[in-house]
Specification:
The complex is a heterodimer of chains A (about 100) and B (about 475).
Chain A: H1 4-13, H2 20-37, H3 73-78, E1 84-85, E2 88-89
Antiparallel strand pairs in A: 1-2
Chain B: H1 9-17, H2 23-41, E1 44-47, H3 49-64, E2 76-80, H4 107-114, E3 118-123, E4 143-144, E5 147-151, H5 157-164, E6 170-175, H6 181-187, E7 190-193, E8 213-218, H7 221-231, E9 261-265, H8 275-290, E10 294-298, H9 303-321, H10 342-353, H11 356-369, H12 374-398, E11 401-405, H13 421-426, H14 432-437, E12 441-448, E13 454-460, H15 466-480
Parallel strand pairs in B: 2-3, 2-6, 9-10, 9-11
Antiparallel strand pairs in B: 1-3, 4-5, 6-8, 7-8, 7-12, 11-13, 12-13
Classes of the chains: A mainly alpha (about 100), B alpha/beta (about 475).
Chain lengths: ~100, ~475
Amino acid sequence: MLTEEQVRHVAKLARLKLSDEEVKKFSGQLSGVLEYVDILKEVDTDGVEITSQVTGLKNVLRKDEVVKSEATREELLACSELEIDNNQVKVMHAIK
Amino acid sequence: MAGLNKLTIREAGKGLREGKFSCEDLMKDCLAEISAKNKDLNAYVFVDEKMALAEAKEMDKRFKKGEDLGPLMGIPCGVKDNFNTRGVKTTCCSPFLKDFVPPYDASVIKRLRDAGMIMVGKTNMDEFACGGSTEHSCFGATRNPYDLSRVAGGTSGGSAAATSADMCIYAMGSDTGGSIRQPASFCGVTGLKVTYGRVSRSGITAMASSWDTVGHFAKNVEDAAIVLNVTAGKDKKDSTTPDIEVPDYTSFLRKGVKGLRIGIPKEYFGEGIDKEVADKVMEVVEKLKKEGAKVVEVSLPMTKYAVAAYYVMMPAELSANLERFDGIRYGKKPSKTASKDLVEYYFAARGEGFGSEIKRRIMIGTYVLSAGYYDAYYKKAQKVRTLIIKDFEKAFKEVDVLIAPVSPIPAFKVGELVDNPLAMYMADVLTIPASAAGVPSLAVPAGMSKEGLPIGLQIIAPQFEEGRCFTVGDSVEKVQA
């Protein structure tokens, strides 16, 4: 069972602001999902390798060269809703 | 000329080349169908009629000049809203991206445009492709063309409904755990989930990177093969696309199933699977047997663990992928911009921008990746995934393809499962294993339920053997005709 305190902790890690109502709802629903996935414990996986890539490709490399992008700098900057200053997106301060 | 929207790609292409109608006529009929039906179905979230018609006229001009870009030239296509389309809103049906206009085309969109595709509009989906019913969309649910009180399936429900209701000739979608096959089955159309890496994903919003694939919906198997001829192949921008030859997929049609070994995985017909669904699929299998196919029962014992493995790995990968949504470079900034510092800004932007199903999955993903839980959940699931892959490898030593139902039940009612995430997740129980193994699977209609709802079967083949899916799919259509 995931307590509301644990839910708040995970939300903090995920940088999600949750309402009290959401915390309550997720506590129940997440516990349900986690209980369900516990059936994986039934499976004997001793000595079994992990799979992180299914078609067997390894270390696909490309030349380290500058490629012209379809999008212009102006177009990319226009995607931001924040103020643009000197071709940079202006954000709040990160360090006080 | 009314009714051109009902044509297949091949029929429409023939008519265009014989001068029976123009690309503009074809597009007009699709747009008229959208005007008539979209209010009820909510399959499209964005249609720019002027742009679509202008592009159609442009293709007509090029046809007149004697240019021929191939079978997709001038054919109207619906595009799922998680495909970046230059200059056209791409929202992933999330409040976060409600006004986002990407400055570039996804690689696969570029390929399709080079082949003369004309986009009709963007189709509805579950927010960021998370759901199983296209109810988790900030634009509201897509409805099933066969019964408006039911869902179209998800997450590519808009593309499925648009193809089924002739609001386009074909449509693009993405499939991570069943998001093309399940809605195709619910809406009675053909839907292809390709081998992992067969089609580039560059420019399509990432969900679970070790699972995501890009595929499409079509009105028949032949059309599905025609589209894959254009979309498949290596792309420099997606390093998971291997340099494996792209055959002419239409050459696999009209071959018949004589001597072909078809495996029936017993776990896909067992407990929890609607009897009517199982019976319909087996009826078709019996007919294939009469055509000379060899049918044998096989076992994929890990099937029952696939959903659990998926609901560990997918949210984990999703939560990592959606970290990029910070409301700074793109996406909505929070309405309350009183945030004093950057961290507060992130919390507010993400708290407001994501819908409930996304938050739920980000939370699961973050939890299973958090300190102390990684081995118990993610690593364990990765090992179980290896065993699922071994199941398929073993089966494909005995048989050429597998045939099974797509979904345990036909389309359910709107609202029926929306607040019961676990029940909704179980709707993917028969589609997730093929996704786990990265193998291709083609969903094809297999008849109707007594209630008048479509039932679909899937043809699963080994990696990069989409051709086999088309051979069998083509026969599945013929034996039912």
